[in-house]
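Render this sequence as a predicted structure.
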Amino acid sequence: MNGTLTTLELEIITYDEPSAPTRSNAAAAIVEQLNLLGIKATYKTLDPDSKEWTQETIKKALKNKYFQLALIGVNLSTKPDLKPLLSSNGKLNYSGYANEAMDSYLNEAMAAKDEVSMRTAMASVQLHIINELPILGLFFRSGTVISTLDVSGLSGIREGNVLRGIEFITPQ
């Protein structure tokens, strides 16, 4: 009305792995919460061909910018390289986010020769993410271990092998 947005509508797309409906459950919960806030949100369960979303159809939708909000999974390397997600020309930067400062921070992180340089660069990346919010990480569907024991020595935890290395933990 008079150039003022009176109703905010948002459509969410996602896909599920064959083994678990984690993302669609999360999408339904997000829709419910947004609707409580007065944002008319819907979870679009079918792709443009009226079939269930798959990882392939989601990739196609992301590439063609056929989404308002996409709930997707991303596997990153063990090296903290966020360039695919956050750099102006990142392969996984589906939103088209472009920011010279972020590109600079990411380049500094990848060029870091020691821990102090890496921490400094990654702190700049983190603060920039907080200020700009180009992406929003909601949860880790797999690869998270919760324990009262010190599990800091575990490495290489990946989906399907979340307990890798747990045999080396000794109770204190």
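Summary. The chain has a mean pLDDT of 82. The helical segments are 22-36, 55-63, 83-86, 100-111, 115-132.
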